[in-house]
Amino acid sequence: MKNTFNIYRFCSLLLLLFFFPFPKISAQQEIDSSLISVVGVGDIMMGTNFPNSSYLPPNNDCEQLFSSEIRGILNSAHITFGNLEGCFLNEGKVEKRCKDTTICYAFKMPDKYVNCLFSNGFDVVSLANNHIGDFGEKGRSNTMRLLDSVGIRYGGLLSHPTSIIEIDTLKIGFCAFAPNTGTCSINDTITAKRIITDLKSQCDIVITSFHGGAEGSSHRHVTRNTEIFYGENRGNVYQFARVAIDAGADIVFGHGPHVTRAIDIYKNRFIAYSLGNFCTYARFNLKGPNGFAPIVRLLVDKSGKFVKGKIYPIKQSGNGGAAIDNQSSAIKEIKSLTSTDIPESNLVIENDGSFYIKEK
């Protein structure tokens, strides 16, 4: 695992800086031992063998869903995060309630697909979402077993709410929340605060993620209100992010709406309200705003304070798979939505995707 800044990661960093320079941050700053690099992406579902294998990528090969440029970015950070939207399970009975199981949106990726998370640099994933329980306890336990086998940390389940990653002498904690059965609740802020505060007492930096907010292109805005979708309370993500940071979170990564939303800074801590669909093969709507998303790359100090960041825009064409978007749709979307939804923000977002706090 890439839990230390090893030779492979250093080489990946040099390639990344050559092909995708990190404006306003020098190479010396980037490898400065006083700074920690964190990459966050949204939903990951690399194809499902339910209800049949037609929803798997060609030749049952998930590696083709990640371009070489994407792989370089994911492997360049100390910590790389994503939301695992579904379980790993070769065989199992669907337990999600569906009126018609032939068209039921239930996701289980083949066991071997865990290796695509490992090879593409993921260190930690959220299991707090509405698909981790599609195949019941068998799917959850098998997913945790496989993630353990490759050294990828996870959190967000009531049975496993948090994880801690050590980088040299630094401890980085992770926790996740969602409005779904078996997950740590985004709507129980008292318990959420307790989990985050306890984790912060053990760690230098805490990364918190949430699966919240209504879904789809008509729900791209941060409303600052409780969002109800199909009768389900999907939380007030604006409020939850602030509750999390007040409790000790240093980075908040949101996902769930399947579209890109605004970014924010609160108490010098970073918030992404939705990272959209990152790598979601088949069974996902990838039209319009659903088909592009950001890779967010942050530099923070050893206390978790935001220093600078960069958005790498990706798109998914056809049935899905992450590739660099030369039209920079996610950058344009985040600039527009942040200006509209968080007008008081002191973030400057450049056209090349770099962002930083405006000097007073």
Descriptive labels:
ten-stranded mixed sheet; 360 residues; alpha/beta; six-stranded mixed sheet
Amino- and carboxy-terminal Cα gap: 40 Å
Q: Could you list the spans in which at least 5 consecutive residues all have pLDDT below 50?
A: 15-31
Structural class: alpha/beta
Q: Indicate the radius of gyration in whole angstroms.
A: 19 Å
**How much of the residues is beta strand, in percent?**
25-35%
The ordered string of helix (H) and strand (E) elements is HHEHEEEHEHEEEHEEEHEEEEEEEHEE
Described by the principal axes of the CA atoms, the overall outline is globular
Instruction: Count helical runs.
Output: 8
Explain what the structure shows:
The protein is globular, with a radius of gyration of 19 Å. The termini are far apart. The longest helix is centred in the middle third of the chain and has 15 residues, at 136-150. It is built from 8 helices and 20 strands. The chain has helices at residues 7-19, 27-30, 68-74, 114-119, 136-150, 189-202, 237-247, 329-341, and strands spanning 35-45, 79-84, 87-88, 108-109, 124-126, 153-155, 162-167, 170-177, 205-211, 228-229, 232-233, 251-255, 263-266, 269-272, 277-280, 292-301, 306-316, 322-324, 347-349, 354-357. The strands form 4 sheets. Strands 1, 2, 5, 6, 15, 16, 17, 18, 19 and 20 form a 10-stranded mixed beta sheet that branches. It has a 6-stranded mixed beta sheet with strand order 7-8-9-12-14-13.
